[in-house]
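Re: weekly structure request thread

Next one in the queue (355 aa):
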Amino acid sequence: MHIFIIRLFFTIFIVDSALVTSKSNSISLNKITPKHSVKVVHQLYKDYFMLKYQNIYVSDQDEIASAKKRLSESANLTLSNVCGYYGEITIGNQTFKTNFDLGSSDLWIPSQDYTSYSCSIHKRFNESLSKTFKPIGTPFTIEYGAGSVIGITGKDNVLVGGIKSVGQIFGLTQEADGDLFIEAEYDGIFGMGFDALSEIKTTTPFSNMVKQKAVTNPYFGLYLQRSNDHGDVGTLTLGDIDTTKFIGKLNYNNVSTTDGEYKYWIIDVDDISINGNNLKFKNRKAILDTGNNIVLMPYNDALTYHQFIIRSSELNGHFTVPCNTTDQVAYIIGGVSYNIDQSDLVTGSNCASGV
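Done, posted below.
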């Protein structure tokens, strides 16, 4: 299977049913910015996402072993270097900054028992300050491409933008691999994938909000602004469609299953068009992931893509394009062409390709 991992170029609404008007419930998001050069981060991303999606993206065990080795030897990749967007939530009347991640399905924050230096600069959950907290104590380990977090579970009320998940089971991390967490701008991770992807084996906060009818509609929307235009900010809207964030009509695409279950936000891609030339990609699927600021493709697909980009070049699997490129690129999804702004085709000051 050919899988793309795609950054979100445009407003996306994750929808489960027909549109119904309701009151907007939104929170502001801030972008996580990598601390290292684009070239370094690109290689780390390739390894990180290879491991994160190894069950559906890569079947070559030698490649997986090599990626694990490179990451274990790297001092550059921490959770702070994995891009994404974070915002504030409340758990048990305590406020935390969490990374809203489409590619995972668990909510975790640091426990009061997490005392290592990597956690000392982050907000930790104090059980004694919450009258609604209930300990569960089930141990868990959540693996990320950059390492893992370990802890136990608890239950409390979770509030996001005025929407509450009552009695939400979440993780209280007690330790993490090495410096995995040390520079992160956020305190924990808020998984926005499907329930079947949960390592804690529980219902996600948003699924609970839907089941408890805390939201009028079972969908959420992500609006991400281009940093060159408005700064690295965005908006997460729960249970509503914010019509001020887009023009035209919404388009709908079915989500694909993995091993018969809904896990990732994965959709079919018809093709890619560059300067009017269709690349003739067939049977491609794309995983939408907020934790990524580039598009990841199998190498042969990336090579084909860059053959159509004017004056692009390659060195050891890394592609560069003209900083002021005027190429017209469109992703064709569900029969609709989505034009990509030229500024999104380039990342970093060294004109690295966005693919």
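The CA atoms of residues 39 and 352 lie 7 Å apart. The domain at 27-224 is CATH 2.40.70.10 (Cathepsin D, subunit A; domain 1).
Next request, please.
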